[in-house]
Amino acid sequence: AKMIRKFPCLVSRTFCNVGREDPRRMIHALKVGVSLTLVSLLYLLEPLFHGVGQNAIWAVMTVVVVLEFTVGATLCKGFNRGLGTILAGSLAFFIDFIANESNHVFRAIFIASAVFLIGTSATYIRFIPYIKKNYDYGVVIFLLTFNLITVSSYRVHSVLRIAQERFYTIAIGCAICLFVTLFVFPNWSGEDLHNSTVSKLEGLAKSIEACVNEYFSDSSSEIREDKWSDDPIYKAVLDSKSADETLASYASWEPRKSRYCKFPWKQYVKVGVALRHFGYTVVALHGCLRTEIQVNFGFTIIVTPKAVRALFKDPCICLAAEVSKALKELANSVRNRRLCSPSILSDHLHQALQDLDTALKSQPRLFLNPTTDQKHNHAPPPHPSSLLALAAAAVASKGGQKPPTTTTTTTNNSNNNSDNVAMPRTKTDTSALLEWKSKKDNKEGGERRMLRPQLSKIAITSLEFAEALPFAAFASLLVETVARLDLVIEEVEELGRIAHFKEFRPGDEVV
Amino acid sequence: AKMIRKFPCLVSRTFCNVGREDPRRMIHALKVGVSLTLVSLLYLLEPLFHGVGQNAIWAVMTVVVVLEFTVGATLCKGFNRGLGTILAGSLAFFIDFIANESNHVFRAIFIASAVFLIGTSATYIRFIPYIKKNYDYGVVIFLLTFNLITVSSYRVHSVLRIAQERFYTIAIGCAICLFVTLFVFPNWSGEDLHNSTVSKLEGLAKSIEACVNEYFSDSSSEIREDKWSDDPIYKAVLDSKSADETLASYASWEPRKSRYCKFPWKQYVKVGVALRHFGYTVVALHGCLRTEIQVNFGFTIIVTPKAVRALFKDPCICLAAEVSKALKELANSVRNRRLCSPSILSDHLHQALQDLDTALKSQPRLFLNPTTDQKHNHAPPPHPSSLLALAAAAVASKGGQKPPTTTTTTTNNSNNNSDNVAMPRTKTDTSALLEWKSKKDNKEGGERRMLRPQLSKIAITSLEFAEALPFAAFASLLVETVARLDLVIEEVEELGRIAHFKEFRPGDEVV
């Protein structure tokens, strides 16, 4: 009973939402209503009816079938309907001309076999991808009209008149549709494609920033249960292929709108492809978020320690911010139909990438130390100490390259740390390093000995390769994101070139 | 001129290919031809024509429009057409009944406003997603029929007869369509969905194996230029969303085929979603292939040295083979409609994952050693030595856990190596380790000193973290692939449960 009472409420809410989401839908519905009424007048008003005749009803049918939401779709359908009717009419007339010569029975057989042949081949032709994409509706109308005229011609003996009348009324219907769609609040497929490109760019910008921020946020421990918790923003990008292609194919029917050129719908499709590829990387990046928490098939949970993440937090977030900024700038550029700000797109991004690169380069080297594994079994867990040391070392490598500086910083950091294994060693090493300093001139021979103390300190800064794996994947994907972004930028710039976007002026708003 | 001569050849080849790709298309075309001929007989044969009358032409139209490639699509369209006609007929009859009471002018106004109102609201309703998905065609037919009958009723005064005749002829047309589609070589959407699921599983199995093999192949130096060189196999998976959903919605119209239950089209859609998610990871994995070669934005090329890859080659290839095997087993299971072999799905896969895990765990730890950078500037390039040492250590960690064993193995391996830096140290360390052995009891105090020699040896096995990054990403994604595979397995098992697949018997062929 509750369900029943709720139902009308739900229906009315759905009903209203459809209009609120896109007010053009309401307008389109009114347009259809008006056109239908107009075309009905052909039949209802006495003088018009006498001009057109009984077949006025075909005009009504044409309006119902042809008038679509966007200009491109209407033009495409109208053209298909017109072409299909003309071709079918001609063919039917030709067949009627041949069949007319013969007697009644032979005529029936002839018509039936013509229907069979044309029906079979037209249906077969519809499977050809090129025809299916562009002229599917036209072939259906062709078949429909052909059968209608050919079959009727058996009993009605004024086929030419039928064909003519049908053609006229369809032409009237198409004319009304064209007028309404082109001049009364027109909706352009090209415009839709343009806007969807902008919103995809913005959506990706948002989701990549959110993704990286979430990765480095401290609250990452809250396990998210939903399996397919992918961000709907980029989900829309991934599944945009067929919608994009439909819009583009309709847009290709629309008349030129700018002074310069035809609407570059092909380039928009290319941008869409580049964006989808970008999106795949974002999905993988998003996957890292979950890998951190749950993955490894439930039998080995490898989580990169937070301290390691913290080490790379700034360059990563900075890079993500730059990527996001670049995407927003691209979105703005497309939205305002102007070329992109060259500085945003390359300088900052390169700078951020360089920073991350430096951070990664200055980072831990990989060593093998099979013994430490056993050692730590009866020692306190190795992570806190090792990671702080790592962090310290990272700071050190920025501050200066000389070992003494490194050691000092390490000591400072170790003091903040309550670890009881790391502390004594660091102190011992300081003295060892002083020894190293005094022996600095002794190059080749001394190297072996002088390396030893330095390394023993680093022994405790060990981290399992497997532990670093998820982060490495994250960083690597982030870098790949930039590479994919490069392709997106390329395609958008090409779009700007083809569509003759206006020049970028320094005064233009920059994100 | 050459183009012109080539054109007919191209056309005929395209024409033939369409039929060769899927012979059912040829059959479908013939089916349409036969049905059209049958329905034309209604008009052509004298006795039938007298029964049905002039409106026989509507039956022809119905066949052209309703007869679709698969059973589900035909049923869906036929139902929509029938429902739309009935509703529109009733409504038109009701309106005609009201309008009949009044005079001529008022009637015209009444009809026009009814057309406007119904036209507007029907068009608006088409935007509601639920309606758009299931009943779009029905609403169009409703609008068409309603307008046809209402407008005609103004001049023709036997509306009830028009409506009736139209209904009968449409029913005849639908009946012919149903008969042909259901009993003459039927094509089931559910079958298509089933087969596309199988081929997607197989395609992914192939592409993941190819991807991993290519990664570890020695010929990876051949740079592939094509930007979007994604494997078409999994590309098909990624873009399968709309096709899947269309097939599923048609499949939902098809009558039950198995003894137990309705066709579980919803579950197939879920499997499709899981496969797409799996596909995203494969794309990312494929991206690693390219990262290795060209990425990092053109300004820093980081390539994981081949030797490092070789180190993990076997477990990775093994894991990929197991993933591929599992996918093939799933494909076989779905194809033969039997439950999956439980051993393939878990045991081997887990074993392979465990192996990779062990390989990764036994592998280099991360250390920071800022000094080595400067050192190696005037030393021979660090890679060959370090990597052999790495490999040696890996073997060592498998062979035995005790430091002396490790050293021996390392020495053995170093002998195969022409490196002049690694050799002397290893020897020195052997003596150092003997010293370590004697001091073994001295736990807390001695640990510091005894670690030192061991580590100094490993100093030369250094590898930049950044260098390992691409491989880490690759390995991490491979592991994630397994996690995604788990979800695919889950969904396929659920599918098996819902669709009552037959039990797995040990005798069943196993991939």
Q: What's this, in brief?
A:
With 511 residues, the first copy, chain A, is mainly alpha-helical.
Describe, in plain words, how this protein is organized in 3D:
Two copies of one chain form a homodimer. Chain A has 511 residues and is mostly helical. The first copy, chain A, contains 21 helices and one strand. In chain A, helix 2 (24-44) packs across helix 3 (46-52) and helix 10 packs parallel to helix 13 (265-294). Chain A starts with a helix and ends in a 13-residue tail after the last helix. Chains A and B meet through helix 1, helix 2, helix 4, helix 6 and helix 8 of A and helix 1, helix 2, helix 4, helix 6 and helix 8 of B. Strand 1 of chain A pairs antiparallel with strand 1 of chain B.
